[in-house]
Specification:
alpha/beta, globular, 6-stranded mixed beta sheet
């Protein structure tokens, strides 16, 4: 079964209304140009603030998953009959907790909220501390059935943890979607693509990584097939990136290279 996925590699600002207007523009373009079955936006696309932005401003911009941004995005998904995956800043329920969640929502083609995932492994690396502003989620994403295969999902830094992808493969994922805000820098491009390729090959899944771009971010969104073949890759600027996901390809690769079935987990404990 073949489906069209479109990645919206975009810049983001702190104002959710500005980003929503951009999402609407690019969804309309994608519909006219590509007719996608599913469209992916980057991590934290709803509202992104640069480092050292005052804490109260960042927290004040967070919304609930039934807030105006997701509600409007759901209407657009229904309008165009496409699934949408998008990163948001979610308000924490506890009013005494001075943090937010780094959350990804999955909206189906009827405009319904199909899944919500709160990033579990926060980016406390390379001199940055995501945990100062974000509260970690407490469970992995549980893969969901869609008209175009069983979908898994994790976020950005989590591609460095093979256990997360392996868990979702164990739950039957055929495709793993990875919204990212991957910083540019020395060796960052090499690491980004090496990790995405590795997760694809070791689990025989499609990897669909949609990155923020602009000042400080890598771009280079990509779609990698279950043999590690890069079937689409973006540059460093704003653009739509389309690729075909073929679940028959997943099945064929798993028959040819049954590495997941050949594991011997009785020999190790992690």
């Amino acid at each position: 079964m073949r489906s069209k996925f479109v990645l919206a590699q975009l810049t983001s600002v702190g104002d959710a209304t500005v980003n929503l207007a951009k999402a609407r523009e690019y969804m309309a373009r994608a519909y006219e140009e590509e007719h996608p079955d599913l469209m992916v936006f980057p991590e934290l696309f709803m509202s992104y603030f640069p480092a050292k932005t005052p804490h109260n401003i960042v927290i004040g911009a967070a919304q609930s998953v039934d807030g105006p941004f997701v509600t409007a995005l759901s209407r657009e998904a229904k309008k165009y009959g496409m699934w949408v995956v998008c990163g948001i800043s979610e308000r924490v329920e506890d009013p005494n907790d001075p943090r937010k969640y780094n959350t990804t929502v999955v909206i189906n083609a009827e405009g319904e909220l199909a899944a919500v995932y709160r990033k579990t492994h926060l980016y406390d690396a390379f001199g940055y501390r995501e945990s100062d502003i974000n509260k970690p989620g407490n469970r992995f994403f549980e893969p969901i059935n869609t008209p175009f295969g069983r979908i898994g999902l994790f976020v950005c830094y989590e591609v460095r943890f093979p256990e997360i992808a392996r868990y979702q493969r164990s739950k039957g994922a055929d495709v793993m979607i990875v919204p990212t805000a991957w910083s540019e820098g020395k060796l960052k491009s090499q690491q980004f693509h090496t990790l995405i390729d590795a997760r694809a090959i070791e689990n025989a899944v499609y990897m669909v990584a949609c990155d923020l771009c602009g000042d400080g971010f890598l771009g280079e969104s990509c779609i990698v097939d279950p043999m590690g073949v890069n079937i689409a890759m973006a540059g460093e600027t704003e653009q739509l990136l389309a690729g075909v996901i073929d679940t028959d390809r997943v099945e064929a690769v798993r028959k040819k290279l049954p590495a997941y079935q050949d594991r011997r987990p009785e020999l190790y404990t992690i």
